[in-house]
Amino acid sequence: MDHRPLLGEQYNSTTLSLRINLRFALRHRESSEIILRRCCLPLNKDALWYKDAIIYQVHVRTFYDSNGDGIGDFQGLEQKLDYFQELGINAIWLMPFFPSPLRDDGYDIADYTAVHSSYGTLEDFRKLLDSAHERGIRVIIEMVLNHTSDQHPWFQEARSLRDNPRRDWYVWSDTEDRYEGARIIFLDTETSNWAWDPISKSYYWHRFFSHQPDLNYDNPAVREQIWNAMKFWLKMGVDAFRLDAVPYLVEREGTNCENLPETHNILKELRRKVDEQFPGSMLLAEANQWPADLRPYFGDEDEFHMAFHFPLMPRMFMGLKLEDRKPITEILQQTPEIPPSCQWTLFLRNHDELTLEMVTDMERDYMYDMYAESKTMRLNLGIRRRLAPLLNNDRRRIELMNGMLMSLPGTPIIYYGDEIGMGDNISLGDRNGVRTPMQWNGGWNSGFSLAEPERLYAPLIQDAVYGYPAVNVLSQKESEHSLFRWMQRIIAVRRSNGVFGRGSIEFLYPANHRILAYLRRLGKQTVLVVNNLSNSAQAVELDLRPYKGNILIEMFGNNIFPRVGDLPYLLTMGPYQFYWFRLRRV
Amino acid sequence: METLSPRVSSRGRAEVHAELKLEDETFLTDDFLRHLINVGEVDILVGLPTHNNAKTIGSILQTIQNGVLKAFPRERAVIINADGGSHDGTPDLVTGISIDDVRPASNLYALRTLHSISTKYASSPASGVALRTILAAAELLRAKACIVMSPESANIDSEWVSKLLRPVYCDGFDLVTPTYRRHKFEGLLTTNLLYPMIRALYGVRIREAYTPEFGFSSRLGGQFLNQNNWNDGTGAGAELRFTLAAITSGYRICQSFLGEKEHVERRGADLVPVLRQTVGALFPALESDFPVWSRVTGSQPVPTTGSEQEVRLEPMRVNRKRLREMFSTGVAELESVFQSILSPSTLGELQRIARLGEEEFHYSAELWIRTVYEFAASYQKSVISRDHIIQALAPLFRGRALTFLMENRNSSANEVEKHIEGLCLEFERLKPYLLEMWKSRE
Description:
The complex is a heterodimer.
Chain A: E1 10-11, E2 18-19, H1 22-27, H2 32-39, E3 55-58, H3 60-63, H4 74-79, H5 81-87, E4 91-94, H6 122-134, E5 138-144, H7 153-160, E6 172-173, E7 194-197, E8 202-205, H8 220-236, E9 240-244, H9 261-277, E10 282-285, H10 291-294, E11 306-308, H11 312-322, H12 326-333, E12 343-347, E13 354-355, H13 361-371, E14 378-379, E15 382-383, H14 387-390, H15 395-407, E16 411-415, H16 473-477, H17 483-495, H18 499-502, E17 504-508, E18 515-522, E19 525-532, E20 538-542, E21 551-554, E22 560-563, E23 569-573, E24 578-584
Parallel strand pairs in A: 3-4, 3-16, 4-5, 5-9, 9-10, 10-11, 11-12, 12-16
Antiparallel strand pairs in A: 1-2, 6-8, 7-8, 13-15, 14-15, 17-18, 18-19, 19-24, 20-23, 21-22, 21-24
Helix pairs in contact in A: 11-12, 11-13, 15-17
Chain B: E1 2-8, E2 14-20, H1 30-39, E3 44-50, H2 54-71, E4 77-83, H3 90-95, E5 114-120, H4 127-140, E6 145-148, H5 158-169, E7 175-183, H6 188-202, E8 204-205, E9 214-217, H7 218-227, H8 238-248, E10 253-260, H9 271-277, H10 279-288, H11 290-293, E11 300-301, E12 304-305, E13 310-312, H12 320-333, H13 335-341, H14 344-354, H15 365-381, H16 386-407, H17 413-429, H18 431-440
Parallel strand pairs in B: 3-4, 3-6, 4-5, 7-10, 7-13, 8-11, 10-12
Antiparallel strand pairs in B: 1-2, 6-9, 7-9
Helix pairs in contact in B: 2-5, 4-7, 6-17, 9-16, 12-14, 12-16, 15-16, 15-18
C-alpha cells in the first residue's frame, strides 16, 4: 500500500508499520489514530498528485440514494466508488454537504463542521473518505470562505444586537453607499450588494444572494474560525479544498472589492498553515477572473496550488462554433506562466451556468445566439445547460471537446453525468436543471433511488433524447462504442503519459485556422495534439521540422504514422476529429 | 476534358478508348490553392485586383477590414488579392494584414480569423484576369457574397463594404452596382454612351455597368466564371460583360449609393484603351445577346439604395478648342474608315459639323446615337478590323463630349440629370434604327 507523505514521517510502503516522528506528532498535537488513518492509504506519494488527477465533480445529493428517501447520500456515494475506479477517476470533488437551508444548493452554509442530515452522518462521510482512499481516489470538498447562510448561528448572533460579540464577524453599514465600485454578481436576482436587516436595522454586505451575508475577513476571529473549520476536515483525511468565491473576501472603499492585496494575504496565511500542518493537501481557487488577475492567486507557490481557468472554457465553445482556433489560442497566449508546482484546472461544464463573465460583449452575444437562443436558457451572465445539449448531442463534438479538455495544460474536471451525455431540464429553476439525479439504468428511478418518484429531490430527465431509458450507465457499459467507454479510453490514454498533466505547451499555428495544434513536452517525451474544430474534413500542413526523423505514433490505436521529414507534415482530418501522437525517434 | 468513345471489339467486349483532351491548364498556382485550402469555406469574399499599389493599399486594406469587421463580425471572410506582378511589394502588404492568432489586429476587434491572401496571375496586368482569379477563388471557397474593390479609389469608405455586400448577403440580390457623387463632367463615356445604350438595348437602368467596385452572389459569379470565354488572354472588359451577363440571365440587380468617387491619380484621358475595355466589350456582347436585347422595349429602373446619382457642380477647366480640333481632324483623317462604318447621311452630317466654328459646333443627341448604333452594327459585321472600329470612335466621342460640356456648362444638377435622361430616351426611341441595320446587314 502506498501511504500519503507527511512532513517528518517516514514509512515503509510495503507494510503498515510506520516510524513516526514523535516530536513532529506531539508538536502538532495529532493523535496517532489520525496519523494512522491518514497514512494507511493506497494513494501515490507525489506531492504534486493534483497535476495527474482526473477529477470528477459530483453532488452527494444527485448521485445515489442508499436509504430510499429520494436524496443521494454518503453511503450511496460510497457504494458507487467502484464506478469511479472503472471510469479511471482518481479524485472526486464533492459539492457542499454541510448543514444548510439549501437556498443556494448548499453554498449557504449553516455549520462548517458537520454534515447535512439528508446525506448521512459524519461517520458516513469518514467511511466514504477511507473507502475512496483505499481505491486510490482523493477527496476534494468545498469550503465556502466568503459568506455563510443567514441561518448560520454566527449571523443569527451578529444580527441580534449591534454590540453582540459576533457583530463584527460580518460587514455592516447604516447606508447602502459603501463600496460602490463592486459589481453585482447575481444580476438576475439581486439589485444591490447590500441587504436590509430588519432585526438589527442596518444593511449587511453580500456579494451573492441576499441570504448569504459576507464574512468580515478583517476580523482575526473570523479568520481563525475558518481555519479551525478547515483543520477539522483536514484532520479527518480530506485531501483538498475547493475554496469558493475567494476574490471577494475583503472590501475596500474606492476599489471593485475583488482580488485585493489583503485578500491574497489571508489566502497566503491559510496556505502556510496547510503546508505546515497538512502537507500534501491541496487548495483549489474558484476565482472567475481574467488570466492576469488569476495569476496572483498562485503567489510564489505560497497561495493556491490550483485555480480554475474560467476564461478558457467559454472560448472552447466559441472556437467550436466559429470553427476557428483564434479564441482559444488568444486566451492561452494571454495566460501568464504559473509557478512550477501550480496547475490550472480545466472544465467544460459544472454545477453553475456556463459563465460568460470573462468574455467581451460581442462574444457574449455570439455565445447566446449560438448556444442559448431561448432566453430561458440564460441565467445571470451565462447559460444553464449541460454539455451534451449544448453540443446538440453531437457525439463527435462531445468527443472533441473532451479531447481538448484532456490534452490542454491543466487538470481536467468531469462534471457528473457528462461522461454518459446526460441532458438537462431548464424548466427547473435557477441552475437546478443541470443537477438532476444520476442516471444509472433504465429502470425504477433510473436506479438512483428506490423511493417513489415524487419523493426524488428533483425529477429525472425523461425526454426522448436524454431521458434515462436512453442515457444511462448500465446500457453504456454494455456497449463497446458508448460515450462512457470512450471516456474510459481517453482517461486511460491521458493517464498513461505524464506529459498531459505536467508538460509544457507550444502552439503550432498552421495556416488552416480551423486546426488547433500544439505540442506537449515533458523531459524527452513529446506529444502532438491536432484538433479539427470544423464540421467538415480538413487538410493541414504542420511545420514539424524541429522533429525531423521522429515517427508519429497515434496514441489510441498505437499505429505508426509517417516519419517527419523536411516537408510540412500533411494530415487530413475528418469533421471534429482529433489526433494525439507520441513522437518517437527510433 | 476526357472524352470516351465506346467501341465493341470483335470479341464483343466494349473497349473504351479514352481520348485525353486537355483543357487549358488551371490558372491558379499551387501556392494559391494551398492558401485557399487553409482559408476554407467563407461567407464573405473581398476581391482586390492590384498592380503596384503599395502607396495606397495599406489604407485601403485597413478600410476594408474595418468594413468587414463592423458589418459582418461573425461571418467567415477573406480578402483575395489578384496581383498583376507588382514590383513595389503590394502583395506582401496585403498578406501582412491578415488578422489571426499570430497577427492580431492592433486596433480592431475580430471575433474570428480574417484571412488576407495574395496571388500573382500569370499574365501582364489585366482586370479581366484578376476578376477571373477572384471568381475562381469565390467558387472554390463557396463564398456566399462577394465584392470587388478597386485600389484606385482614393476615398474608399468602410461603409462601401456593407453597401455592396448587404444586398447580396442579406437581401438576395445577385449584383450590386454602385452609384456615386461625381462631377457633372466626369464619366462622360458612361453618361453619353454606356449607360444610355445599355439601358436602351437591355431595358435595365444601371448607371455604372462598367465599374471597378461591385458586389455579386456566388450564383452569378459561378455562372460567369464557367460560361464566359476567357481565351482572349486579357479578359478586357470582363466587368462590363459581368453586368450584361447578370441582366441577360435574369439575375436580381440593384444599385447602392456609395458617395464621393475619387481616383488615386488623375491620369490624362487615354481614350482608346478605355474604349477598348468598354465599348470593345459591349459591342461583342450585343452579338451574343441579340436574342435578348432585340426583344426588349423601353427600360425599367432597378432597386436603388440611396441616391441614383449625385452631381457636383464646381467649375472645371475644359480645353474646348483641343476637343474640337481632335474631332475635326479625326473626321477628316478617318474619312475612308468612316465610309465603311457609317451611312452616307451620318457621315455627311459629321463632316458638316466638323466645319462649324467653335461657337456653332453642336453634335446633337440624335446624330450621336445614330453614330453609335451604326458603329455597333458595323462592328457586328466586321466591316473592317474590329479594333479599328473601336479606335475610330475616339474622335467622334470627343466631339460629342464637347457638346455635352457646352450644353451643361451652366446647368444645375437637376438640369444635367434631365439632359442625360433625355439622351437615354433618345437612345430608346432610336433602338429600332439599330435593329433595322442589324437585321438588314445579316
